[in-house]
Each structure stands twice: as C-alpha cells, then as structure tokens.
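Retro notes (design track)

What went well: tokenization of the new backbones is finally stable.
What didn't: we kept losing track of which sequence belonged to which structure.
Fix going forward: every design gets posted as structure first, then sequence, in one message. First example under the new rule, 128 residues:
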C-alpha cells in the first residue's frame, strides 16, 4: 500500500484540518503537528490491533490539532459522520495508520528543509 498514491484525498483531508487550525493560530509550529500525528498514529494503531487505545496525553494546541486530525480520521475510516455531505469509501485502519505515518515523515522533512513552520507553509499551498 502506498498512501501517497492510494489515499491522496485522505492525506489532503487531514492536512486541511491542520491548516485550518494553523490559520487560527499563526504562531503554531511543526512540533505541535508532530505531537498530534504521533498521538493519532498510536490511537489508530491500537484500534487496528483491536486493542483499547490509550488516551492522548496532549494539552492546549497539541490537543486541538489532534482533535481536528481525529475528526477527519473518524470520518474517513467510516467510524463517524463527516464534515462534508455525501458518502466516502471507508479506509481500513491499517491504511489510515500508514497515511498518518507518511504525514509524520513529511513533517520531519519539511522541518529540516524550511524550519519550524515549513511543513504548514508547504501544505497550505495544496489545501486552499
């Protein structure tokens, strides 16, 4: 499974949620997104393994970004209604985890390339 090829729309949905929160909080850094993605990876990996997920130990902006990411993940996995009307084909939890890992790697890359807000500046141009 290649999340970039197979689930481009899911990646964009998740990134759009991040951009909305960043636009409301312009001082937000990539590290906030890293924490939220890490928490989402742990949460959905546990669900994929049919284990009860541990609560995310996040506060403040980290928790807000995690909640936004989780809302999209719940919708795209078919576990909850989404922000948009219409039906989407649910993504398997294992594939959702792979998508989140891909996004997490992207945060690392753009932090190294462009600094503490590099990831958000990069994704913003694709989700407007």
């Amino acid at each position: 499974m290649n999340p970039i090829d197979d689930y481009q729309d899911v990646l964009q949905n998740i990134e759009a949620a991040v951009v909305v929160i960043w636009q409301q909080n312009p001082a937000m850094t990539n590290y906030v997104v890293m924490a939220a993605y890490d928490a989402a990876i742990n949460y959905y990996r546990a669900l994929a393994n049919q284990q009860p997920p541990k609560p995310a130990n996040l506060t403040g902006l980290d928790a807000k970004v995690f909640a936004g990411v989780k809302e999209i993940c719940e919708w795209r996995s078919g576990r909850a209604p989404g922000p948009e009307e219409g039906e989407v084909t649910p993504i398997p939890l294992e594939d959702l985890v792979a998508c989140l890992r891909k996004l997490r790697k992207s945060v690392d890359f753009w932090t190294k390339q462009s600094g503490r807000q590099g990831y958000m500046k990069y994704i913003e141009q694709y989700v407007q």
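Added context from the reviewer: The helical segments are 3-6, 8-24, 30-48, 60-76, 93-114, 118-127.
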